Each structure stands twice: as C-alpha cells, then as structure tokens.
Amino acid sequence: MHRWGMVIDLDKCSGCQACVVACHAENNIGIIGPEESAKGRTISWIELIPYIEGEYPHIKARLLPRPCM
C-alpha cells in the first residue's frame, strides 16, 4: 500500500498562490467567475493563511498553506 505526503517549505512561500492553481488543475476544479466569487461561492481545497510573529518593529509575516487533507 502506498501512502502519499506533501512537504511545503514555508521559507520559500512568497504568496504567489501557484500551489492553489496547481491544486485546482490537479483536482479538476472549475474556474469561478467574479460574480460567483462575489457571492462567496468559491471552492478552495488549499488556502493561504497569513501568520504574523512578533511585535512592532520586529515583525515577521509568514503565509501558512493549509491543504484540504
């Protein structure tokens, strides 16, 4: 039996959302137009969550990808 895993290097995440596009392509998720998006009818199997560490002036911001699995 095979088991799959995914590794995400957070130091290389720039917020480009290429992982979101790849997820949509791999899972055959259709493209939703702006009118449907405005109504909140989007499908998202991977989401980028902003995470901020520290306090001003020593702030470090990261994006944490949260896959559906």
Describe this structure in words.
The chain is flat. The protein is of the alpha+beta class. A hairpin with a 2-residue loop joins β1 and β2. The protein has one domain. The longest helix has 9 residues. Strands 1-2 form a two-stranded antiparallel sheet. It starts with 17 loop residues before the first helix and ends with a strand. The mean pLDDT is 80. 20% of the residues lie in helices and 29% in strands. The protein has 2 helices and 2 strands; from the N terminus they run ααββ.
Helices and strands in order:
Blueprint: H1 18-26, H2 34-38, E1 46-55, E2 58-67
Antiparallel strand pairs: 1-2
Summarize the structure.
The chain is of the alpha+beta class. It contains two helices and two strands. A hairpin with a 2-residue loop joins strand 1 (46-55) and strand 2.
Provide keyphrases for this structure.
69 residues
Number of helices: 2
How would you state the average pLDDT, rounded?
80
Helical residue percent band: 10-25%
Major sheet: arrangement of strands: 1-2
E-strand count: 2
Q: What distance lies between the first and last C-alpha atoms, to the nearest angstrom?
A: 18 Å
Low-confidence stretches: none
Oligomer: single chain
Shape: flat
Structural class: alpha+beta
- Beta content: 25-35%
* Whole-angstrom Rg: 15 Å
Q: Total domains, how many?
A: 1
Describe the largest sheet: 2 strands, antiparallel
Helix/strand order, N-terminal first: HHEE
